[in-house]
């Protein structure tokens, strides 16, 4: 198709369409599952009922008036783009941010792309001997993130759509309380929105990873666990007790020094995203239900900022 026409129809920047075309190239896409099979798949992915209903209602069947040729092109090529990097473990935006207010096809286009990749990534998992329990626990982060985005009134999806390409390429695995991202010599730790961060749950997840990666990726020699997060900001210790789950999580890490601000990342925005699931509410109107929420607001009201810190500890530590 004509890229200028696609750019104009989608209302996005030309370089974003050109990027999709370049990265997808002539790589094959992947077909969507049959619509009749979709409810069971959405259920396994723990997609909330409201989102599942929208996804099913706007299914890109032939002749659907919701799907313009340009949207169909983007669905095909974004799926090919992600599939071409199967096994990759870096963040990979699947395509340009779309105006999701234009309808459910626009709102869920990248969800359909992920659904098309379910069979691809499950086969990748099987080829590495990974069991179905880990596969579906990992991929169910799609449903979790759709639920969070709905709570955020649609403010979260542009970041989430890039994040979820890790799951659908085999770059990350949910093992108990933590998500473990492959890459380099250190497993990157991520914390899902899934309840308390208790030491026992963390220990169990780390022990699972110590068994999982040598068994399923024996040619990737990991020597450390790493994490980059505002949760590692030592300033939190000014507000939280020493036995809090967050401080005890921090205690596991040796921080990278000296502190260098993360390029292109706004830690205050990330704190807003994860602590309040809200990017726009005025400071005085944010909830103060938890000690962490009160600490974050007090810090900001004092004219201070949060920092994004990185740290690590040895893979073999117990």
Automatic annotation (TrEMBL):
Domain N-acyltransferase N-terminal: 37-170
Origin superkingdom: Bacteria
Any Pfam family the entry gives: GNAT_C
Domain (GNAT-like C-terminal): residue spans on this chain: 177-313
InterPro entries: GNAT_C (IPR041644), NAT_N (IPR041273)
Name of this protein: Acyltransferase
Lineage: Bacteria, Bacillati, Actinomycetota, Actinomycetes, Micromonosporales
